[in-house]
Amino acid sequence: MKTYKQKTDFLYIGVKLLKWYQTHKRDLPWRKSINPYNIWISEVVLQQTQVKQGMQHYLNFVERFPDVDTLANADEEEVLLYWKGLGYYSRALNLHKAAKQLVTDYNSEFPETYAELLKLKGVGKYTAAAIASISFHEKVAAVDGNFYRVLSRLFADDFDISNSRAFQYFSELTELIMPETDAGCFNQAMMDLGSEVCKPKNPLCSDCPLQDDCRAFAIGKINQFPVKLKKTKVENLALSYQFIYHDDQFLVKQRDTSDIWKKLFEYPKNLDFNDIDFIEEHEKVIQHKLTHRNLEISISKILIPNKCDFDKIKTENDFLSFSFTEAEQKSFPKPLHDYYIKYFS
DNA sequence: AATTCGGGGTA
DNA sequence: TACCCAGAATT
């Protein structure tokens, strides 16, 4: 680590940040209480996800699953349904597993310490710290991407944030400014500052409560921090699907837990028809960009005129079949993830 | 210690 | 386009 002065020399910065937070904190639904369940769900929704994107999913999720027991007792497929379109689907699977853990091992009550919260599936160092500090007032820093950015600018520190030791490094830097009390507010203040003021591009330094303390601002090199050396790599992937339908039904298949879209549903691939009568109507090609992949998805649209043949396909291949609504049928094809899970009354 | 998990927003 | 986001599990 670079050489810094004594810890006490920087503590006033954290105090100043807390003061700023009192009047500038965002009005967010999960800040209306410190109920650990709601804090937990919000923190998981917001992993690698911006507030604007995760907001509606959070609201829908806690409305349908308002507490640990409701979530634990729900079907996995329905939990996934409420996560549809949000990405990083292991988050939903782990939420469900952790809810079951809480019911079985903790009598449906949240453990109240950082160390114990870490044992829950899908709860890592950041999320455990967020819950412990916000809901249980434990003094532990919830170090995330906002901390990396704010601290690297504040101290004009060029430590590579893509380095696997970055978490440890910026955790130690946090100690320099973190007040003894109000850890939950401090953590959320760092998030709000990073999100609303100390933004990745074009930070609003004129609105920043820490402008006078910011080393990067002082030397006019705000845009050089944080330093990130590793670049994102993208690969191309081709998927070939068959949209096989009859009347108001079509075939989908559940993916496994490997690779992308864990346990979500997709059209069948490479299905062998043998003696079954069918009509191939047309083929549609969709370009779909993911963070780490560029997908080219080709979909053959196939009508099975004979209901018996359709049932035969289902049976022989053990596919799940869902009905779809007329509106969804008319809008075909849409982006693929819209078709994964179907529920109809 | 490095890679792999999504999808929306931003410049 | 490339990069970012209230990261965690897996390899």
TrEMBL record:
**Any idea which GO molecular function terms this record carries?**
4 iron, 4 sulfur cluster binding; 8-oxo-7,8-dihydroguanine DNA N-glycosylase activity; adenine/guanine mispair binding; metal ion binding; oxidized purine DNA binding; purine-specific mismatch base pair DNA N-glycosylase activity
The residues covered by the HhH-GPD domain are 45-196
| Highest taxon, organism lineage | Bacteria
A Gene Ontology biological process in which this protein takes part is: mismatch repair
* Catalytic reactions on record: Hydrolyzes free adenine bases from 7,8-dihydro-8-oxoguanine:adenine mismatched double-stranded DNA, leaving an apurinic site
Q: Return the EC number.
A: 3.2.2.31
**PROSITE patterns this protein is in?**
ENDONUCLEASE_III_1
**Keywords on record:** 4Fe-4S, DNA damage, DNA repair, Glycosidase, Hydrolase, Iron, Iron-sulfur, Metal-binding
Top-rank EC class of the record's enzyme = hydrolase
Gene3D superfamilies the record matches: Helix-hairpin-Helix base-excision DNA repair enzymes (C-terminal) (1.10.1670.10), Hypothetical protein, domain 2 (1.10.340.30)
Q: Which InterPro entries would you find in this protein's record?
A: A/G_AdeGlyc_MutY, DNA_glycosylase, Endonuclease3_FeS-loop_motif, Endouclease-III_FeS-bd_BS, HhH-GPD_domain, HhH_base_excis_C, HhH_motif, MIG/MutY
Cofactors needed by this protein, per the record, are:
[4Fe-4S] cluster
The UniProt family comment states: Belongs to the Nth/MutY family.
Q: What does this protein do?
A: Adenine glycosylase active on G-A mispairs. MutY also corrects error-prone DNA synthesis past GO lesions which are due to the oxidatively damaged form of guanine: 7,8-dihydro-8-oxoguanine (8-oxo-dGTP).
Identification of the protein by name: Adenine DNA glycosylase
Organism field? Soonwooa buanensis
Task: Tell me the classification of the organism that encodes this protein.
Answer: Bacteria, Pseudomonadati, Bacteroidota, Flavobacteriia, Flavobacteriales
